[in-house]
């Protein structure tokens, strides 16, 4: 699927209509895709790299970083500021990227705000709500104000990026933070959600896919409970947007955060989806140039969304590269990617479950999951597991994965997580399983 450097948004290898694509990915096609990812051809510790850490950050096809270079070589200028040709061209590229990414998640152009990452997107929401709670933003912003007696509901599955900002907002406003717990397997206690979400609940914030377990949350059920009490919904889409077909309108959420570097894009770029009417009513998070209509020495008036949340010089080349990544994903097909990862995930989970001394975390097989497998090995610390796997060229994530409360609920301090993407093969999974089978013997455990 290599794109030409003259036009990094146009593919010369795969057809653009999904109807002409094969029904499912397989090892042969994935092996061809891998040629677009030069880093996957390198050696680590003298052996070929097996990259199973896409849950942390994905690798990038060459067309993505070529797109950034192409932008700098041909169009580099400040957007929304100049009247000269380069500035106009750069602005067109910048806004076309917004259109492309918005279409990818089922949103309108004015409903996608560029941020540095998903963490900033979630903080944007909480700080904007905090500003509304302080009386900023006028009458339109009062709907976002929080105070004593109001409740914010999260879940025990959350990444710290969708927990700590809400903790801080509760502290700043006097609101109460509550959470929906998980059971001993890590499944969300939906049987308790209806009693935890009450008429006092103003916000329900939850992950679409657990970054630790890879399990898919019942979005429809949580949105329905929130709607019943008039609460706003905030979705963490970091692990879903790269791996599943996502349509924010079909999901019916009010906000969603996502991160470019997990979906083949560059670092330093993420996004916030928000319903247009809500974004326009929210007070700004950052203030300065390019987000105003008028300024006097006493006050300022702000542009509508998304620009009211995009103060200062923007991430233009990264936005262009993210749109290129989205084009790549669309060409492969998100349905096909999701199906392939489901196959890889089942292969990992089944294989790991059959290795003595290995405990796979999360609900039993059959729960909806992406291609992620978290596990612990009896008697061996996850950091030692990670180093052993690295000696075999296998890259995985170890630690608490920015989800300490979830690990605590599962009765472990940390874990090892293998996570797949469209460029992984069944051979990658088998390499992991073979290496994990040798871990306890290497460390002299369980003899």
UniProtKB/TrEMBL annotation:
Transmembrane segments: none annotated. One of its GO terms (molecular function) is cysteine desulfurase activity. It comes from the Bacteria. The keyword Transferase applies. It is an enzyme of class 2 (transferase). Its EC number is 2.8.1.7. Its cofactor is pyridoxal 5'-phosphate. Gene3D superfamilies: Aspartate Aminotransferase, domain 1, Type I PLP-dependent aspartate aminotransferase-like (Major domain). Residues 50-432 form the Aminotransferase class V domain. InterPro entries: Aminotrans_V_dom (IPR000192), Aminotrans_V_PyrdxlP_BS (IPR020578), Cys_dSase_SufS (IPR010970), PyrdxlP-dep_Trfase (IPR015424), PyrdxlP-dep_Trfase_major (IPR015421), PyrdxlP-dep_Trfase_small (IPR015422). Keywords: Lyase, Pyridoxal phosphate, Transferase. It catalyses: (sulfur carrier)-H + L-cysteine = (sulfur carrier)-SH + L-alanine. Belongs to the class-V pyridoxal-phosphate-dependent aminotransferase family. Csd subfamily. Catalyzes the removal of elemental sulfur and selenium atoms from L-cysteine, L-cystine, L-selenocysteine, and L-selenocystine to produce L-alanine. This is Cysteine desulfurase.
């Amino acid at each position: 699927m290599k794109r030409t450097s003259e036009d990094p948004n146009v593919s010369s290898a795969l057809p653009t209509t999904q109807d002409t694509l094969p029904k499912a990915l397989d090892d042969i096609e994935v092996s061809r895709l891998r040629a677009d990812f030069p880093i996957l051809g390198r050696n680590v510790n003298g052996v070929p790299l097996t990259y199973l850490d896409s849950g942390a950050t994905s690798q990038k096809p060459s067309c993505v970083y070529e797109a950034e270079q192409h932008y700098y070589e041909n169009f580099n200028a400040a957007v929304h500021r100049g009247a000269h040709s380069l500035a106009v061209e750069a602005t067109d590229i910048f806004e076309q990227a917004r259109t492309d990414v918005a279409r990818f998640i089922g949103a309108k152009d004015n409903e996608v705000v560029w941020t540095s990452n998903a963490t900033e997107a979630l903080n944007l929401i909480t700080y904007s709500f905090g500003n509304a709670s302080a009386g900023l933003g006028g009458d339109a912003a009062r709907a976002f104000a929080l105070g004593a007696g109001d409740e914010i509901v999260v879940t025990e599955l959350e990444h710290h990026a969708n927990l700590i900002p809400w903790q801080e907002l509760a502290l700043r406003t006097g609101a109460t933070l509550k959470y929906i717990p998980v059971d001993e397997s890590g499944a969300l206690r939906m049987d308790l959600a209806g009693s935890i979400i009450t008429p006092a609940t103003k916000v329900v914030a939850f992950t679409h896919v657990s970054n630790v377990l890879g399990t898919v949350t019942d979005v429809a059920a949580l949105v329905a409970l929130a709607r019943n009490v008039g609460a706003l919904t905030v979705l963490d889409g970091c692990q879903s947007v790269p791996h599943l077909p996502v349509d924010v309108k079909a999901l019916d959420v009010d906000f969603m955060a996502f991160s470019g570097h997990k979906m083949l894009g560059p670092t330093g770029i993420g996004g916030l989806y928000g319903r247009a009417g809500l974004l326009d009513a929210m007070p700004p998070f950052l203030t300065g140039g390019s987000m105003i209509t008028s300024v006097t020495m006493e006050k300022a008036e702000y542009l509508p969304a998304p620009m009211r949340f995009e103060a200062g010089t923007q991430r233009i080349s990264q936005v262009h590269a993210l749109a290129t990544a989205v084009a790549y994903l669309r060409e492969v097909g998100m349905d096909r990617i999701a199906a392939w990862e489901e196959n890889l995930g089942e292969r990992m989970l089944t294989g790991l479950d059959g290795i003595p001394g290995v405990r796979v975390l999360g609900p039993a097989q059959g729960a909806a999951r992406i291609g992620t497998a978290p596990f612990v090995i009896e008697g061996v610390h996850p950091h030692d597991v990670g180093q052993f796997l690295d000696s075999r060229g296998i890259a995985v994530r170890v630690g608490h994965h920015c989800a300490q409360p979830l690990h605590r609920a599962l009765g472990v301090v940390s874990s090892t997580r293998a996570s797949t993407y469209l460029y992984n093969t069944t051979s990658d999974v088998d390499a992991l399983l073979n290496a994990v089978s040798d871990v306890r013997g290497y460390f002299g455990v369980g003899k």
